[in-house]
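Retro notes
What went well: the complex prediction finally ran end to end.
Inputs used:
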Amino acid sequence: MNFNALRAFMVKELRHILRDRQTLTVLLMMPLVQVILFGFALRSDVRNIRLVVIDPTPDHATLDLRNRFGATSTFRIVGTYQSTDSLEPLFRAGRADVALVFDPDFASHLNGSEPARLLIAVDASDPNTGTTYLAYVRTVIQSYQAELNQPGRQVEIVTQTRMRFNPTLESVNLFVPGLIALVLVLVSALMTAISLSREKERGTMEVLLVSPLRPQQIIVGKVLPYLALAFANVITALIAAWAVFHVPFRGSVSLLLAESMLYTLVSLALGVLVAARTSSQRAAMLTAMLATMLPNALLSGMIFPIASMPSWLQPFTYIVPARWFILIARGIMLKGIGLTLLWRETLVLSIMALLLLAAAMRSFKPRLE
Amino acid sequence: MTLAANSASNGIAIDAQDLTRRFGSFVAVDHITFDVKAGEVFGFLGANGAGKTTAIKMLVGLLAPSEGTAHVAGADIRTQRDEIKRSIGYMSQRFSLYADLTVRENIRLYGGIYGLTPDQIAERTKRMLDNLGLSGSVDDLVGDLPLGWKQKLAFSVALVHEPKIVFLDEPTSGVDPITRRQFWELIYAAAARGTTVFVTTHYMDEAEYCDRISIMVDGKIVELGTPAELKEKYRTETVDDVFVRLARGATKGEAA
């Protein structure tokens, strides 16, 4: 392969991208705007959380903590019981949002060496507000714990949480990986499809095909600059998620970036395939939207949980690249897991990338039809 | 010695034998046979729809022939496309430079694609723009240039790698008479440097500038010779008159 020819071609592609300021601005701002809009839309500021306290052995320590909840405007204690039996009907009737269940030995453990135990049960039927409740409860407990802590006296309060009605919690945290998937497919598939079909439409493709440039070089030259742009987008989305919403990042950044590039390759190959099969920019754009954006947004589990889809539809989600990428990104970002646990998803994406790139190369004809 | 090598050493730049292209049942190019001598300015004439562009696309390797063979610069268009690519320049019917790149960037792109070194590119850019009188516009976007300049620039860029043969598909359509004139001066300059020029046109006055011309009607070459020979044969004043007489029987093109 003639590397100089490829480089000349890539420089040209970069110039196209950099010179079209409007498109570039939109592309660069998109992750930022999407993360912020989706993030705020999914967030709800909560007041008057109805709190039920189960306190089998009331004493000064439990009362102290109970009062702290009562003193905030965020919580309203709607009932105090000694046994957990009353909890279930209250939750079912929707008359409680959060329950605080003290361990019978809470006070004595608080002064002793063993950790004091608390159970927090949250109505998570609306997943987003559910996480918010939990966050508020934790804040109160943490500040209580911090005050008790003095030099020479370490207090340990261990909380256990139970998200009722929705154990696999969806929230802004879970949304960010899906958002990255969407932005990446938009930038890569859509933009390569448009840029390749533009060459066809304007007639410059003919001249490129007559030149010694090989079809593979044309594809690589088209794809690589967008890979760089996609890279920038992932970083923007991550920074926005972290800075604005404090979305945690528990795993390896470089692994996530590498996986993002793998997923981008899949999307880019799709874009090339679309461009090869369509004859105008408009058709390429619409086809790319239909073939990539919609399934990746709707069938990936990003918005609608796959488990709640009709059973005939669920098998189709296996061929949606974003489904796998979202699993990977959530695993890395939220659970902090690495390749040892994600190799299966990574393998699926790699196979998809290879097959689609091969198909893209094949469908990209060195001659006109 | 193979036929290909033979024809190259004979000073034949292009030879086509029974070259045919069908699209379904439509025969766009119908068994055309001709040759073009090295260094010649060869006019490939025909009405719109006569099959000129289809023929040129087969010769430059953009379309596979349905039947027949052709050699370009001694290489077989069916099997030796890579060899052909290095020896030809091509200016398609549509404007082939990038409007959002500057003059210099376009030249650098095509120079780079054809494997020129940065020094060669710099030197040829300067020479080319001096010739065209475009030196002041080297950093202007190509999209901002007037059409005539764009076409002259596209032609010069098609020659940046100094190909043996250059294919021009209706290079002067849509430009004013003065620019057409200047364009032909560029073609002559290239021919004087030894480049074979294969040019399609439907402007019959331009045919007079060619060393030899072929006239295509309904996918077939119906006449081939020097402009003087054809005018003599049909006893007419201009090639235009020759063309009108030949094209009158056309069924496919606009002349029908």
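What we learned: Chain A has a mean pLDDT of 83.
What to try next: split runs per interface for comparison.
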